[in-house]
Amino acid sequence: MNKYPSFLKLIISTLLLLAFTGCTKSLPRIEGHIPLSNLVTRGYATSQQTIKPYVDKSVRLWGYLDSHNISLESGVLSNQPIDWEVAKTGEPSGFMLKARFNDNVGDAVSVHISGDIHQFRQVFKQIRDAGENPQMPVLVTGTLRTFDAPTNLRTLTSIVIEVRSPANIKLFNNKAL
Question: Could you report the per-residue pLDDT of 27-71, keeping only the tens digit for each?
Fold first, then answer.
């Protein structure tokens, strides 16, 4: 009996397992900021156990700008890009961060701006001027909040990061990681 067919099956099974379990390299910390990918998958908390130590606490995270999900009050920027959403009265301005640069549009966590949005004008100018660079790391320091996101099969945990100062948002040199 030939040993190669079972050996070949083992190799193929291992490769398929690695491909479907998402074997991806771990991302590094940047200036003390934890990669969002350590906590989030496709825009939702990876698990309750993973996210629990960070809830309602100040966190330093980094992720990739989701350039298709930016919302800003009217009049804050001249020449506001036409594809940016105009925040409605009472809704926070902000943007979304993806855990990995190749995540789908919308598979991200919300970053809400608290306080006087006009203080954040320079941050939004940098975002506008950077254009659609999917590999732009953004460093954020803010309070991590969670809420339930019911689906047909189970309840997921959504994440919002509340930022109160423009000093707590930094675009990281447009450098890919």
Answer: 777 888 999 999 999 989 999 899 999 999 999 999 998 888 888
Tokens of 28: 């590094």
pTM listed for this prediction: 0.77
